[in-house]
Design a protein that fits this description.
Blueprint (H helix, E strand, L loop, with lengths): L1 H19 L9 H4 L43 E5 L9 H5 L6 E6 L5 E5 L17 E5 L31 E10 L2 E12 L5 E11 L14 E2 L23 E6 L8 E6 L8 E5 L11 E3 L4 E2 L17 E5 L4 E6 L4 E6 L10 E4 L5 E6 L4 H4 L4 E8 L4 E8 L2
InterPro entries: DUF4185 (IPR025442)
Protein name: DUF4185 domain-containing protein
Keywords: Signal
Length: 403
């Protein structure tokens, strides 16, 4: 049994190292990218059928985006589209983006908001649909009540490439971002293949680094966390093969404050949208060395040999976490059935029961808080977040009030 386990781990490790070696952009063949405009790459339950929408087969050039549904219940309100041809940012003509999702947001350390998006497509009438594994956009907008304005213009190229073949590596999706010491760090998952709705399979998660504000990225092999679920001792600088890795295939970053200051916290969930959330912590200078991470066991912080305890029971979906000086609490968003908000006094919890702040009828997923929100600056109760919509496969700006 040990020999079989090591063989499986070796295969997974080889795939992870080969995929991570793709530091240059790799464009998948047209046959692999052809599903992007039909939304086959996201694993969400409502794939587009352009024929039923009245578009010519193969997709309309600008994709399936429709006007953003109006919603305002006094606490939560849909503000505007962030991406898509119907957005105020006109991302189809400015950035070559008809559809995208996720929109992980963080402050770059100088007051600029960086946003990393997942699978992105452009002109849906092109053979390759203008498909990219991921993209990065920027904003300095702090007045979000009338929408989020993106900076500059020009074709938005991919952050980092992938093989582009299902069963090996279909794509790489950013799940978390943080700025430390003037550098940008993005945690991403290497998706091996998309499965049934809300299920997908990963090779590994890893952390990419940028020293030039996101214009180029590099993935140190030491940050690769192979999704094998076993422990294998490897030399320093090699990918990690550890039993905790499957719990951290998708992530969210948080900088601690008060008694929790001096630590960076990483929240993790397994691949897909049905697992529980766990938490690790590390010193800022150790972000590229998972061997120095500590894990919450339910009673204490312990090293990589620990058995982490779930801090929020599943299903937990793509999530974001931040400190709110307005509430004097940590805030967590995810979207298992509508968008839910939780609070805690410490990063590891205990976390409150999820309070639904947006109904499932809005079809939102991947709620990613914006660092310029008043609730995260201590100037008011308004919390703004990016959220993707199933039908339109684009990112919208949503506002809620945390109190």
């Amino acid at each position: 049994m040990r020999r079989i386990t090591r063989t499986i781990t070796t295969l997974a490790l080889s795939a992870a190292m080969a995929a991570a070696a793709l530091t240059a952009v790799v464009t998948p063949p047209p046959a692999q990218a052809s599903g992007a405009c039909s939304n086959s790459g996201t694993g969400i339950p409502l794939p587009f059928d352009f024929g039923s929408l009245g578009f010519p087969r193969g997709g309309a050039a600008q994709g399936p985006q429709k006007p953003l549904p109006h919603f305002d219940n006094g606490r939560t309100k849909t503000i505007s589209w962030v991406t898509g041809p119907l957005s105020r940012n006109k991302t189809f003509t400015r950035f070559g983006i008809s559809g995208t999702d996720v929109g992980v947001a963080w402050d770059n350390g100088r007051g600029q908001t960086l946003m990393a998006f997942g699978d992105t497509f452009g002109n849906c009438l092109r053979q390759d649909r203008g498909w990219r594994n991921n993209t990065l956009l920027r904003s300095t907008d702090t007045n979000l009540e009338n929408g989020l304005t993106l900076q500059r213009r020009g074709y938005a190229g991919p952050m980092f490439g992938a093989f582009g073949f299902s069963g090996i590596e279909k794509t790489k999706i950013p799940t978390a971002g943080i700025s430390i010491g003037g550098k940008q760090y993005v945690n991403y998952m290497s998706v091996r293949a998309w499965g049934p709705p809300s299920r997908w399979f990963t090779n590994y998660s890893a952390t990419a680094v940028s020293s030039n504000n996101g214009r180029s990225w590099f993935t140190p092999q030491s940050t690769i966390r192979v999704n094998a679920g076993v422990d294998v001792a490897l030399p320093a600088g090699w990918p990690s093969v550890n039993h905790v890795n499957p719990l951290f295939q998708q992530s969210a970053y948080l900088k601690g404050v008060g008694d929790d200051a001096g630590w960076v916290y990483q929240y993790g969930t397994p691949n897909g949208r049905f697992g529980a959330a766990h938490i690790a912590r590390f010193r800022p200078g150790d972000i590229l060395d998972p061997g120095k991470y500590q894990y919450w066991t339910g009673t204490r912080w312990a090293g990589g040999a620990a058995r982490p305890a779930a801090i929020v029971r599943g299903p937990v979906t793509e999530l974001s976490v931040a400190w709110s000086p307005y509430l004097n609490k940590y805030v967590m968003l995810d979207s298992p059935n509508g968008v839910k908000l939780r609070t805690a006094n410490h990063p590891q919890g205990p976390w409150s029961a999820g309070r639904r702040i947006a109904p499932s009828s809005l079809e939102l997923y991947a709620p990613m808080m914006l660092p310029s929100s008043p609730a995260l600056r201590g100037t008011g109760p308004e919390l703004y977040f990016n959220a993707s919509r199933w039908d339109d496969y684009n990112v919208a700006l949503i506002r809620t009030k945390v109190r």
